[in-house]
Amino acid sequence: MTGVERLGAGRYLAAGQRPDNSLTTLHELSTEDGSTVRGALSTVPGATTVVCLMHPRQDLTHHPLVPLLLRAGAAVWTQHTRSVNNDLALVHEQALLDVAAGMMFLRERDFRAIVTLGHSGGGTLYAFYHEQAGLPAAERIALAPGGRPVPLPETEMPLPDGAIFLAPHPGQGKLLLACIDPSVADERDPLSVVPDLDPFSPANGFAEPPASSSYSPEFLARYRAAQRDRVARIDAVAREHLARAGESRASFTKSRDAVDRRRSLAPRIMAVYRTDADPRTVDLALDPSERPYGSLFGKRPDLINYGQVGFGRVTTPEAWLSTWSGLSSNADFVRCAPRVAAPTLFVEVTGDQAAFPADSRAMISALGADDLTAVAVRGLHFGGPIGDGEPTGNELAAAEIVSWLAKRYELA
């Protein structure tokens, strides 16, 4: 496709140069349930405060904030979950076991302060961890939404000393609930459409980009209700698959028949079509902000929605219920936020295409910390600048983060 700009071009920024005196070491950790996760600890001489970056699905080893934090005198811990770069089977409750392994490792390194920094989906991951770590062990979640036992009550979960949230969205499930296309008429057919719900039909208010669309309140009300209905239908399918697997496990316990064992192990892989259809990405009058036209995935949601890229596109029933269902997932920022009690900094970016102003207000209002600071900086979700020649959102956010850290913790 020579001469055609790639639909997702420009989403990510490269990290800058790390200080010459920084040292990075790689570490392999074991979790409470026996999984192996890996992390990188970068330090500078004299660093006694460590800032932790994680995301439930992505590798943040080279996050652009790492060199900026090192230059400010903080150590930085970047860690994988067991589902890094492959979220097919991502169960958020298991990801908390991964976070806990990292926190235990850092406590053993004798840092004076451990501060979590959750960017994007890392925000809800860390809010979920703060919530569960702050509960008495017996009150922690013991079963994931799909019924899988998770040993959070038996896991040592050190509480971090601070929390930073950078452009957090409301959670993978809430995010998908807002951008899933409810006009899919047949879950087996990615091109099937219910015309009255089609967000990319001019009859419903869509305008050919780059013009902004204009949806009526009546259409939006039907659209949002239909999104919930579609997620509920997919939830029911996921639970049906898990129930059948459970029946086969129970039958195997009695029969010891290999056929039952195979049935209990056979994976159900769910394809979820068209998940880039939040009306706010193409109707800029909805919850207005400094965001550009388009979604996190690129400038043409009307095309990307039909492609391979998108949230929760291929998943297992367990992962759907734990991570991608806005109706079933526990990894919900607003649900978790009241138990985030450590000193907290919330950094909103004004051009965010994942967390819109109303989302950010709801998340900030829900946070339970007495020491709570909320700031906004000009920038895009992944840290790019809004305008040519401007400082990047990452640079502006780093200045706020470093200033906040320096007032509360020791920096080298």
Short synopsis of the structure:
The chain has 412 residues and is of the alpha/beta class. It folds into 2 domains: 23-173 and 329-408, Alpha/Beta hydrolase fold, catalytic domain (Rossmann fold); 175-324, no CATH class. It has helices at 65-71, 92-108, 121-133, 172-179, 217-255, 258-265, 301-304, 317-324, 333-336, 357-366, 393-408; strands at 23-30, 36-43, 49-54, 75-79, 113-119, 162-166, 270-271, 314-315, 344-351, 372-380.
List keywords for this structure.
412 residues, alpha/beta, Rossmann fold, eight-stranded mixed beta sheet, globular
Model description:
The protein is α/β, with parallel strands linked by helices and 412 residues long. It folds into two domains: 23-173 and 329-408, Alpha/Beta hydrolase fold, catalytic domain (Rossmann fold); 175-324, no CATH class. The protein is 33% helix and 15% strand. Helix 2 crosses helix 3, helix 5 (217-255) packs antiparallel against helix 6 (258-265) and helix 5 crosses helix 8. The protein is globular, with a radius of gyration of 22 Å. It starts with 22 loop residues before the first strand and ends with a helix. The model has no long low-confidence stretch (mean pLDDT 94).
Reconstruct the topology from this structure.
Layout: E1 23-30, E2 36-43, E3 49-54, H1 65-71, E4 75-79, H2 92-108, E5 113-119, H3 121-133, E6 162-166, H4 172-179, H5 217-255, H6 258-265, E7 270-271, H7 301-304, E8 314-315, H8 317-324, H9 333-336, E9 344-351, H10 357-366, E10 372-380, H11 393-408
Parallel strand pairs: 3-4, 3-5, 5-6, 6-9, 9-10
Antiparallel strand pairs: 1-2, 2-4, 7-8
